[in-house]
Amino acid sequence: MFVIDKPDRAVFDVVIYSVLGAFYLFIVLSQMLVVILENRQPVKTVAWLMVLFSLTVVGLVIYFFFGSNRKREHFVSRACASQLARRSAVRFYQGGFPELPAEHKPLIKLFRRQSGSFPYPDNKIRFFISGEEMLDNLLRDIASARHHIHVEFYIIEDDKVGRLVREALATKAREGVSVRLVYDDVGCWNVKNRFFKQMEAEGIQVAAFLPVRFPKFTSKVDFRNHRKIVVIDGIIGYVGGMNLAERYFYQVDKNQPVWRDTHVRIMGNAVGGLQRAFLSDWYVAAGQTITDQVYYPREEECRKIMACDREPYVSRNALIQIVTSIPTAPWPDIMQGMILALLRARQYCYLQSPYFMPTERMLFALQTAALAGVDVRLMIPERTDKRFLTWASRSFLHDVIRAGVRVYLYQKGFLHSKTLVCDDTLMSCGSTNIDFRSFERNFEVNAFVYDKEAALHMKKVFQEDQSHCRMLNLETWETRSIWCRVAESSIRLLSPLL
After folding, report:
1. Domain residues for 201?
2. Burial environment of residue 442 by CB neighbours within 10 A (0 to 12, 13 to 18, 19 or more)
């Protein structure tokens, strides 16, 4: 039997460890070189270099799951996206180009050129700030469906709300209505497969968006579908911040904060934009291209249905663009639109977001608008649903308060609303948070509404929410403890990764 003497064993161990260390160092340095060559924003590059250098093996694992810019082959092809865009714009061309508001022509043209988002005229729009009210209306609209129902949410939980919607969809599927549902595989990581299998057994077509093997360990993995879309018969649409989970609609636990969110119901031509977004995602998730004109009702049909509708709309003649953003696009469309809206604002711009970890460009736009004399107000929750995100968000507040941005911390629960309103003429509502992930790493969708009535309504909602906030000022904010500052600044270094 071969035996290694103790001195020889020590030498052997040193050699083995040296080889392994050199090999690991080679992997880390090569990966760091890859990160540098990707030419990301400097703050992101530095953050990932810190992770790779300081966390040894763990850093490589974290980068593999969260940082690698792996291109997925599942994304919508340009040909498919172009085809869907043409289908969704049929009525737009048939009716001719609508008259565009002069003050928002640059913003409208920006979205049109970058992502093919058309401005659709003649839309009715209604807002929901109550989850229960939104759910009641959604279930009623589902029950009225005649041809198809398309549903897409980041989170669909197996709870009271999820089962209510599942049963409503199953009822329509049994009646012969075509029902399709897309859910994000990571967003629904804690939902058992049997929940969705039961949907399929009822005749509902179900598809998971970009499934991952270990979603429990990759809850923030890149390229997630964060959209919330419902399309019914191509004429009624829903978009906003609410997912299908009890906490968005009811106070589940007295010890937990009430969620305050915003969702909109659209009826009219702009639903074609929501349809395009859903069918693009359906192609990614299910591998099926759907471009049939039947999913885009003709203008005469729309007018007939809209004439019979008696819902209490805020506006009945709104010009709307449905704007999407995807992580592989050459430009971050929604972020650029928000920046342009801020820089072109003349009087005020109010924003709501559950998280505030802005990119350098968004931060600069907020500061520039405020320094130019625009009344810029930012509302975020006093406490988020995740402590780390609360610390990360607060680390950026000094930068905007110093420039003159009025910051309000919402105290009546957890503010999950994602809205923007400017100058009584423009408002936006959708799934996009003011953070790195929403702007650059997720699939998102927002409705940009160019309408005075809608803007004034959203302005009023913001002012009502403001009464449940405490306003920060620079003097008091700078008096917080050194430990808070250390925690905030430390987490800020990782904000591009959160």
Report:
1. 78-323
2. buried
